[in-house]
Amino acid sequence: MTGTVDATTEAARKAERKAAKQRLTEERRLRRAQEAEGREAARQREREAVVARAYAHYLHVRDWARRVSAAGRGVAAPLASAEAQMAAALAPLWNAAPEAVATLRRWTEPITGVRPSDYDNPPRDLALRLKYAVGTVRRHAGEDLFVEELPLLGGFGVEWHRRRYNEDTVRFFKALVALQDGGVLAECRGNVQRRLVWEIGGGWGGFALQFKTVCPNVTYLITGLPELLLVSAVYLMTAWPAARCRFYEPASAAELWTGWEELDFVFVPDGAVVDLDAPPIDVTLDVMTLQRMSAPRVALHVERAFDLGSRYCFSQVPGPCFRDELPAPWQAIARRYWVHQVPPPLDAAFFVVDRFHDAPAIDDYAQAVGWRRLRV
Amino acid sequence: MTAAGSRVPAAGASAPPGARSPRVVFGMAAYHRPDTLAQVLESLLGQTYQDFAVVIVDDHPQPDVTAIVDRYAAADPRISYEPNPVRLGMIRNWRHAFERSLAIHPGATYFAWASDHDFWHPRWLEVLVGELDRDPLVVLAYPQIVRIFPRYRKLITRVFDTADIPHPFARVRATTSGLITAGNCVYGLFRAAAIARVGGFPHVLMPDRLLLLQLALVGRFKQVPDYLWYREVSGSFSYSRQRQMLFARQVPLYTYLPAHLQHFGVLVWRFGVLGRGRPVVGRLRGVAGAVVQLWSSTAREIVRDDSRWREALRRTALGRRLLPGGRVARAQRHRSRVAAAGSR
After folding, report:
1. Residues on chain B bordering chain A, Cβ-to-Cβ distance under 8 angstroms
2. Which residue has the higher pLDDT, B331 or B122?
């Protein structure tokens, strides 16, 4: 009898313990779900704040871009057809809704040709190609020049080892490495003297973001079409809320460079390049911008870079490398700079001394650094 | 008289009294390259570090070269130009470039040989002067290089550095058997006093290698990781080509000895007999250094895949059976691998 009672009591205790354990598990699950919800809500609030900030920047930049366009400072010379097509494709951004600004990166296809939709479900060969490219360049140049695509404003890419990148990221990475191999980047990475860097065109702001991340001690001047600046300025100001930015104003152009060492970004419309009066420029950058331009526009930009004292002029154009004839933008650059093509990092096996007359076929990007000529 | 001619210092002349010597002198041993000379001069004159002079000694003076030099010398007083009355050959011209540079600018601390067909990055001098200023034990600093082939360019990622090797014999061993490419390093920035101490460019085959071996006994080498020198490739190495280039007239018979034996002889003579290394390296240590060089280089010659004895043996039927292929065979294997990969 006593034995039966003991067994019953034991069973009741067990059931009680089990129920308590279940209660605890349920409470823990609930708590975790609430925490996850809280985190998601915080992220959502943060996203909304970023979008709100981006939209505020957009309104500010759009007003400025309209103003300088109305003042006849939008474009320096007639656009080439490639530039005109790009500007036309970006035209809807003049009246963008907050939702469009929230996914600004998905509007940048006309600028670089990289399709965001390719990355919604990235095909295996695209992911492998990018991974191989990043791996090769990283092995050559190390880790510290690689800057991933930000998740900001609809940023997209394939993810590998918690790093997100796409074709733009890889191309910019290669440009940074070429600048390092071309002996230019070291000049901008020092912390002693503030450097002034001019990027022609500026794209959607992706290269500027990478460059400023690697070389914080530079003032970064971007000149370009108002449509392009509408994208790049909004993107960069949203990515770096604390960045000190200044915009060219036709009425007070003389004050643009007052205290320029304190600035992070300076935005100047294409039409003001002709009479741009800047402090001596250290490096001029062309990241696939000049190749879209007409010959007179290319010449105008190269001349201004030279006249403003730019010691180096970097240019990236589509491959192949080592062509028999210089690409058109480089021919213009060569009139003011000694053009030195930066060799791409190759596998050591490609180097065969006995066949040094044969150029290896590399259908990638061609990149060159121009050294300023003394006697033109 | 041409503009450059009017600025040629008289033989044996030095800087006028009271004139301040630049810290650095480039001694350019020129040999008729009017196609590249202007760009080379611009690459030198465009240096971000400006306290330097350029002394050009021309072993093949022609009006087209003189015209280019005149144009630049008229605008920049740092250039001196001296045509050689008779061809000296590369070794004597290199020695002449060093001697005239130091005669004209006796106060120069650093010296660099320059060619008339390679290019110096604008930051070359700034970076290398910084290295030599930073460490007085370093006698030679040089950067990574970009090689300019006829139709393409290549980054040379090879690294050789003795900056952390305190013992002179260990440095000689490293210089002998390490990955050094003397033809690249010899275009680095030297302490002028170190070159003068070891007796300058020697009259042997592979004189650049021997100069570096001598300097390895008295100091350290520092390589900076930036690509700051662009070297033109004009042909592959051969001893007969060296004899033709290095010596203007009669080729000395001793140059038919293996190069490392010639180097051993010069090291014993300069360090053991003349005591050139003193007080840094005494006579006995100098001889010991020469023995270390002979031992290391002989061992290297024995095992090196493209050494002379292997290449000679490979020309025989027995050698082809015994020795796997040399550089040419490796290149062929590589090409077939690339072709196979391409077809896949």
Report:
1. 38-39, 42-43, 45-46, 48, 71-72, 75, 119, 121-123, 127, 146, 149-155, 157, 226-228, 230, 233, 236, 327-328, 331, 334-335, 337-338
2. B122
